[in-house]
Specification:
Helices cover 50% and strands 11% of the residues. A five-stranded antiparallel sheet has the order 4-5-11-8-9, with no helix packed on it. A four-stranded mixed sheet has the order 3-6-7-10.
C-alpha cells in the first residue's frame, strides 16, 4: 500500500519503477508539441532560414543572376578598395564603440548610485534610446555642421579657440597687383626690394573685409625719422573709384595692428606693429638693407572649427553619436546588476581597509563581470550591422571614408551599380562575422543556466 501511494505521489517526470523508463510529460503524444511549435518554425524558416539560404545561393552568381561565378564574389570582398575600407571601419566600430559605451555605462552606474539625483541623471542619459537611429543621425548631422552658427560642436570649438588665440587682424587681405610686396610662401608677403632710411617702405593692401575696418582712421603717409626706417600700411582702395595705385588718397583707411618684420638672410632682425594711422618704424641700424615681410598671422583665415565630417574624423564622430545613444542602455543594465550585488562584500572590504578605488577594481567589477559581458556582446552584435547613423551623418564627400559593411551591402545591392551577387556575398560574410559573437553569447547563457 505504501509503495502504491509513494508511486502516486511521485512527480510526472519521475522514473517509473515498474517500467524503468522516464515518463513522457506529453502522455505519449509528441505530435502535440509539434503542433504548438509548427507556427513558430514556419515563421522562423520564412523570415530567417529562407533568406539565409537564398543569400548563400545568390552569392554564387553574377550581377544578372544567371552566370555562375562560384566564389568570385567573395574574392572581390578582399580586392575592392571600398569594401576593404568598410571592413577596416567595422573592426574599429567593434573595438571602440562597445568598449566606450560599456565603460561609460559602468562609470555612470557606479557614480550615480550614491547621489540623490542619480535617478534623474540616469533618465537623462537613457533618454536618447527613446529616439530612432534616423532621428539621432539628423541631430548629429547638425551638431557636426562646419558652420559654428549651426553646429554645436564647432560653436564650442570656436569659442574655446578664440578665448586663447588672438584672431588675425585682416584675414584674407593681400597686396595690390603689381606692387613691390609679393607672396613669399606660407601666406606671408615680402617686398622684392631692400629698404633704406632714405625713402618710406609703404605697404598697400587690398581685399580687406569691411567689418575689419570699423573704427579705422584715415591713413597717414609716414615721414622720415632719424635712425628709423618708416612706412605706412593701408587699404589702397578709394570708395567710388578714382584713387591712385600706391598713393595714400583721401578716404583710404589705415591698417592698424599689422605685424611688420625686417628680414635678412631668412632671419628676422627687427619687428614693429602698425599704429592707428597705419604707420610703423624700424631701427635703421638693424633693418637697413633688409626686406619687409608681413607674416601670415596677419592674414590667416578666421577659425571655423574642426572638420568633424571630413575623411579623417568622420568615423570617430559617428562613433561618438552611437555612444551618446547607447551609453544609457549600458548604464541601465549595469545599474540593475549593481542593485543585486551583495552589500556585505563591499562593507567587508571597507572594514579590511580597502579604499573606494580598490573596492571598485577588485570587488565591484569582478562581481559585475557577467553583466558587463552581456552588455559588451550585445553592443558588438549591434555595431556589426550599423547602417543608419553612417548613412545619415556622413556627407557625400566622406561616405567612402566612413563606409561600413552594412552600408556597402546596401550600395552594392540597391545603388547605382547594382550587383546583387556581390551584395549577397557581403551579407553572408557579415553573418559569418556575427556568428562567433552569437556563439559566445549562447555559451554564456548555457553556463548561467547550469548554475
Amino acid at each position: 500500500m505504501s509503495d502504491v501511494q509513494s508511486g502516486a505521489d511521485a512527480p510526472a517526470g519521475a522514473v517509473d519503477g515498474r517500467a524503468g523508463k522516464r515518463r513522457n510529460p506529453l502522455g505519449g503524444r509528441p505530435w502535440v508539441a509539434a503542433a504548438f511549435l509548427l507556427p513558430a518554425l514556419v515563421l522562423l524558416g520564412a523570415l530567417v532560414g529562407y533568406p539565409i539560404v537564398f543569400s548563400v545561393y545568390r552569392s554564387l552568381f553574377d550581377a544578372s543572376g544567371h552566370g555562375f561565378v562560384g566564389l568570385d564574389n567573395y574574392g572581390e570582398l578582399f580586392s575592392d578598395d571600398g569594401i576593404r575600407t568598410a571592413l577596416k571601419n567595422n573592426i574599429v566600430w567593434v573595438v571602440v564603440a562597445p568598449t566606450v559605451s560599456t565603460a561609460l555605462g559602468l562609470i555612470f552606474a557606479v557614480l550615480t548610485e550614491r547621489v540623490r539625483w542619480g535617478t534623474a541623471f540616469k533618465l537623462v542619459v537613457f533618454m536618447p534610446m527613446a529616439i530612432s537611429m534616423l532621428a539621432a543621425g539628423i541631430i548629429f548631422r547638425l551638431v557636426y555642421d562646419q558652420a559654428p552658427e549651426r553646429g554645436v560642436a564647432n560653436a564650442v570649438a570656436v569659442a574655446v579657440h578664440d578665448t586663447f588665440a588672438d584672431p588675425a587682424p585682416f584675414p584674407g587681405a593681400k597686396p595690390r597687383p603689381n606692387a613691390d610686396l609679393k607672396a613669399s610662401g606660407g601666406g606671408a608677403f615680402t617686398t622684392r626690394s631692400a629698404v633704406s632710411a632714405a625713402s618710406p617702405a609703404n605697404l598697400p593692401l587690398v581685399a580687406v573685409q569691411p567689418d575689419d575696418l570699423r573704427g579705422a582712421r584715415q591713413a597717414v603717409a609716414a615721414g622720415p625719422r632719424p635712425g628709423m626706417i618708416t612706412g605706412t600700411a593701408w587699404l589702397d582702395f578709394t570708395r567710388g573709384g578714382g584713387g591712385r595705385a600706391g598713393v595714400i588718397d583721401p578716404g583710404e583707411k589705415a591698417l592698424a595692428g599689422l605685424t611688420v618684420e625686417a628680414v635678412k638672410d631668412g632671419r628676422v632682425v627687427a619687428s614693429a606693429t602698425t599704429a592707428a594711422d597705419g604707420t610703423y618704424a624700424l631701427p635703421a641700424d638693424r633693418a637697413e638693407g633688409a626686406r619687409i615681410r608681413l607674416p601670415a598671422a596677419n592674414f590667416a583665415a578666421a577659425y571655423h572649427g574642426v572638420t568633424w565630417l571630413g575623411p579623417a574624423l568622420v568615423t570617430p564622430a559617428i562613433i561618438g553619436s552611437y555612444v551618446w545613444m547607447w551609453a544609457g542602455f549600458a548604464m541601465v543594465l549595469i545599474a540593475a546588476g549593481l542593485a543585486g550585488m551583495p552589500r556585505e562584500l563591499l562593507e567587508a572590504a571597507r572594514v579590511d581597509g580597502a579604499n573606494e578605488w580598490q573596492i571598485f577594481r577588485r570587488v565591484t567589477v569582478p562581481l559585475l563581470a557577467p553583466v558587463l559581458v552581456v552588455v559588451l556582446v550585445t553592443l558588438m552584435i549591434n555595431v556589426l550591422k550599423i547602417f543608419d547613423l553612417v548613412y545619415i551623418i556622413a556627407p557625400g564627400s566622406s561616405v567612402r571614408s566612413a563606409n561600413v559593411l552594412a552600408l556597402q551591402l546596401f550600395q552594392s545591392s540597391f545603388g547605382t551599380d547594382v550587383d546583387e551577387g556581390l551584395g549577397s556575398a557581403i551579407a553572408v560574410f557579415l553573418l559569418l562575422l556575427v556568428m562567433p559573437v552569437m556563439y559566445v553569447n549562447l555559451r554564456r547563457i548555457q553556463k548561467e543556466r547550469r548554475r
